[in-house]
Amino acid sequence: MSATWRAAGARLLILLVTALLIAGLAGRAHGADRIVGVSGEGEILAPPDQARVTLGIEARKPELEAARTAVNSGVERVLALARELGIEPSRVSATQVTIRPEYDWDPQQRERRFLGYYVARQVVLDLRDLDKLGTLLERAVDLGVNQLGDPELDSTRRRDLERQALTLAVEDARKNADIVARAAGAQLGPVRTLHTSAAVVAPPLRYQAMEARMASDAGGAETYVTGDLRFTATVQAEYDLLVGSER
Question: Which pTM does this prediction carry?
């Protein structure tokens, strides 16, 4: 191919690209850049139907074997309690173990002094019958559990509930955008962008459990209440605005 033909081809390509850019800019100027940005929120309340309960047993003894025996005995008692309450073995985990020697500093001798051994184990339970939550927590303490974390309340329908909240948030955003468009004398066009976020807020079970312990005449296990989980979703959306002949 001669240099003349190559130069002519290059000029033609430049003209085509320029024409496409001009057409795109004209389309934007005609109204494609008329947009409205809104937010939407959705919320679903649902009672929890499961709790992840972490029960810890720790001991400090001069001899390692004594510390291990004390902790393992406590774990066995907790596992027996889980069986008694009908918690399936597949929902019980007791594998985490911590063992370490402990020292303090002797300022007179200017050296570390060996104190003994620290041993700890955790039993994690996936409880699906929350009517047994109070019984589990209180009896676990009676059996030697000395590290009790706040139960993590959840729902086996979490994904469905999150999607319901998200659907409500999208619908709310659409309604907000439609109101803004009508107020501006325009019509709402198709959605351009959607950005979503979701969260789950659990009720403050710990405070309620402390109240239950203080109420010695209230029946103990029956006084634990969970409240509702709150599934929330937020949407940030952009829609086209159609005016005049664009409608």
Answer: 0.70
